[in-house]
Amino acid sequence: MINEETVHRYRKDNTRPIDIGDGSTRLVRMTPRLWDDLEFLRIMEGTTTAELAAYAFEEMQLSPGESFDTCFRGIVAYLANRWVEIAEELAEEYPLDFSALHVEAGEQSSSD
Prior knowledge:
The chain is mainly alpha-helical. Helices cover about 55% and strands about 10% of the residues. It is built from 4 helices and 2 strands; from the N terminus they run αββααα. Strands 1-2 form a two-stranded antiparallel ribbon. The chain is extended. The N and C termini lie far apart (about 50 Å).
């Protein structure tokens, strides 16, 4: 059952400071998945939160009324989804064959 304490804990666990590039930080709340996506982007693309914050501020100018958090989440989701699309394209182009890994029940390797 979801109660006030559960919601408060969720907000606390998923609100973190990010560097926005001018020497200051800003608290941003995102889902655990988006925090994982942000870490993935940092590793794979070398993207910093300051760079993403700049895009978020730009998006705020283009979408009046949208909050920084909403724009930042949108930027993270968009960039992370590009990697999903790339992975899907690669999977179609280079399908993996796991049949060699299939072992019937009762079979043992020759090293046993």
